[in-house]
């Protein structure tokens, strides 16, 4: 067994951020990823300022992030009559020391992958290798691996980090009696359309009600020739979920005709939702799903991270952000305890309980809960929003969510770095020779 080798099961955003973090502090690691080829999958996501800070501390620059997205400037909720319910500046315009980024998820993923290969070497990520389980030993853990060619192998290490997503095999072994994937009834269609950005030109807008809405925001700057930008959009309805998800798998390509009838008449002088939907090159359909929280993310030398630990509804735009923060908190624990089960316990103690609460908070619509309140009080149609929900109540609601999600502006700006760039794993407990 290589001394202090850490195996990372999963090469998604969380797994790659972990690999970069461990390299930064001098801990050898190996990423095992099931896909045979890294491709830019997915559509738009937001990276909150707390996670952007961590990317900067990893040496990911503003220019790097500008190449895969753009800084967000506004977050807004709009009623069914096209009138504002709530809006606020985001990122540096809101007083943060770091921006918020709206990015193409797949391009961010490839950016992190390239950084891992550049810094750790081509052998640091083994594609076509899926971790299917583990076996604890007296001095570490053995990862059981299936390869794309049909063969299997076992790899010994000190620690195993399960960053293998919502369908995590590591989590399934750690918690064999966990409930099935939870679906609350929301069905989403996602796409990217070239269109003119609205409002600030970098605005995140949620329009409609908690059970029937469209969310959209640009993930690129406008083309100087056409004025068109890549607009990421999510169209969502809520169905009866009494019998659970019974349809054709978790993810499929769809056509505009599958959803247009849900959004007929959603047009104003500043937005045409049907045109936005019809303009997408590709549309993907999937249920909004998460997993019930588990009491611990740790099993001795094994720990969960990212969606494997805390798959949550995307209503707060903080799934990928939390995975990045996970990696940094885990790295900080290594600097205190070395790459040991004690470090995993410290990481688990710091994050498992509060993030489990955030999972449940997001089920209650997260920051989109304001749409729910307005819908209950007036059906989403109003003349003056202040007559429906007072400004102080709106502000208090949003402040509570940001505090729970870890990006309240004053607290974040005042907080010390999770992991300073000069940090290294605890020398008293880490023998870093391979």
Short overview:
By secondary structure, the chain is an alpha+beta fold. The protein is built from twelve helices and 22 strands.
Task: Describe the 3D structure.
This protein is α+β, with helices and mostly antiparallel strands and 434 residues long. It has helices at 13-24, 49-57, 62-66, 105-120, 169-174, 273-278, 307-310, 319-337, 341-363, 369-378, 391-405, 409-414; strands at residues 6-9, 29-32, 44-47, 69-71, 74-78, 84-89, 101-104, 125-126, 129-137, 140-147, 152-157, 159-162, 182-195, 203-209, 212-218, 229-238, 252-254, 267-268, 271-272, 283-290, 298-299, 302-304. The strands form five sheets. An eight-stranded mixed β-sheet has the order 6-5-14-15-16-13-20-17. Strand 21 (298-299) and strand 22 (302-304) form a beta hairpin. The longest helix has 23 residues, at 341-363. The termini are close together.
Radius of gyration: 22 Å
- Cα(first) to Cα(last) distance is 9 Å
How much helix, percentage-wise, in residues?
25-40%
Summed over residues and divided by their number, the pLDDT gives a mean of: 91
The shape is globular
Low confidence ranges: 428-434
The neighbouring-strand order within the major sheet is: 6-5-14-15-16-13-20-17
Largest sheet: 8 strands, mixed
**Beta-strand percentage range:** 25-35%
| Number of strand elements | 22
DSSP helix count? Answer: 12
Structural class: alpha+beta
